[in-house]
Design brief:
The chain is mainly α. It folds into 2 domains: 216 residues, no CATH class; 200 residues, Lysozyme. The chain contains 14 helices and 4 strands.
């Protein structure tokens, strides 16, 4: 029965393996935490610079139109975008650091789990040897009886240790699986952030070209610039006749879009210009996403089931109705100009029907879509009609309440507010004529 000492040794070694596994994981975690703190400090400094540029932008937008003011606005936008790219690069570096740390942790845990499994297999083999050793065999062997019962006690200790070892192994396995899941999530987020970075780079290029054009045509002379601005102003008639693009539906005259937005604003307390800004931004994003297929791009069954119910109520063929492809920033399957996903649309159907008189309401019908946007934006807080409230409501429209404050989505709120300012100017011209 001397092999019992060997088994005790194996148990001790097994325990050491588990302890070193956890220590190894902790070491990697400490390195990642330290690096994360350093990157987050740099990110916080950049965010202060971004906030400063955004404050300049807000202050300048309140001033009367002038060459100095418009150049300052463009400079603030360009600087903000460049700083955002730097911030995004830091975030991506942070993610890469974490991903690298997780990969090392997983590799270390996997190796140690393999050794632990080998130890447990040896324990199981020894346990089977004890289970197969009968009392009759022991008596015939002529060994001391008291030693036999002492060994039986040792055997029970080994079995208890074996059970604990299995529990510890399960715990290590759970940690490993969590690390892998976290790694996958971080990798997806990194991809998303890179795409946002590309979008911001394009915006910078457009803004820098706009700045050059302003300086070129005005030659830095204020009077020349003011004349150019006046000549570029559209008449009320031109604004009304201009087409307003819609996602998933045919374009309509701006006058009709303004009518729908005004009606939605009266019902919800949200500015018409903001509703127009949301609809326009959704259409702009749609140009880069394309048309999807409900069977492929919708989240099933959360959205596929209500989608089929919506199209059935409207007498529409679901296979022919345009929906969004799954984009990098959320789920696919959004419908019509307001880009509501089916599971959200059904929550608003009664309110939309009460507001428009259309029962059932149609997500591809512009009037219903504008009302849906107004209702959701009001629920998101846009009815307060402050810049901060409207921008936050727009971010909630895109990313939901949980993700609305993430800097990764800031571009959407900024775009919507820029569009809202543009449409407010056009609305003011229409009202004045």
């Amino acid at each position: 029965m001397k092999f019992l000492n060997l088994e005790k040794f194996i148990i001790v070694v097994s325990g050491i393996f588990l302890l070193t596994s956890l220590a190894f994981a902790q070491d990697i975690s400490n390195i990642v935490t330290s690096r994360r703190a350093e990157l987050e400090s740099q990110l916080a400094a950049l965010q202060k610079e971004i906030d400063a540029q955004q404050q300049i932008l807000k202050n300048k937008q309140r001033e009367s139109v002038s060459l100095e003011r418009d150049i300052a606005i463009l400079n603030a936008k360009i600087d903000t975008a460049k700083l955002s790219i730097k911030a995004r690069a830091l975030v991506i570096a942070n993610l890469n650091q974490e991903i690298d740390g997780k990969e090392k942790t997983i590799a270390g845990l996997s190796a140690k789990i393999t050794r632990e499994l080998a130890s447990l297999a040896d324990l199981l083999r020894k346990t089977r040897e004890l289970d197969n050793f009968s009392l009759a065999e022991f008596v015939l062997s002529g060994n001391d009886l008291s030693a036999f019962f002492e060994d039986l006690d040792n055997f029970q200790t080994i079995k208890a240790s074996l059970a604990r070892s299995f529990e510890e192994l399960r715990s290590v396995k759970t940690v490993t699986e969590d690390e892998k899941n976290s790694l996958e999530d971080k990798a997806k987020e990194e991809t998303d952030l890179k795409k946002i970075q590309e979008l911001e780079k394009k915006r910078i290029e457009q803004q820098e070209m706009e700045k050059k054009d302003i300086l070129k045509i005005s030659r830095g002379v204020e009077t020349v610039y003011q004349k150019i601005i006046k000549d570029k102003e559209k008449s009320a008639a031109q604004i009304r006749a201009e087409l307003f693009g819609l996602r998933g539906s045919a374009a309509i005259p701006f006058e009709k879009a303004y009518e729908y937005a005004t009606r939605a604003g009266q019902k919800t307390g949200v500015r018409a210009a903001v509703i127009l800004g949301i609809i326009a931004e959704e259409s702009n994003l749609g140009e880069n996403v394309g048309t999807g297929n409900w069977k492929v791009d919708m989240k099933s069954p959360r959205d596929t089931v209500p989608f089929l119910a919506i199209t059935a109520r409207l007498g529409l063929n679901p296979d022919l109705m345009p929906v969004s492809k799954k984009p990098w920033y959320g789920y696919g399957g959004a419908m019509g100009p307001a880009q509501f996903i089916p599971s959200t649309w059904v929550l608003y159907e009664d309110r939309i029907a009460n507001a428009t008189g259309h029962n059932p309401p149609n997500p591809w019908e512009p009037e219903d879509a504008f009302m849906a946007t107004g209702l959701l934006m009001a629920d998101n807080g846009a009815d307060k009609q402050t810049y901060a409230a409207e921008r936050l409501a727009a971010l909630r429209y895109l990313a939901g309440w949980k993700n609305a404050t993430k800097s990764a989505y800031a571009f959407y709120g900024d775009d919507v507010m820029d569009l809202a300012a543009k449409y407010q100017r056009q609305i003011d011209i229409i009202k004045a004529n």
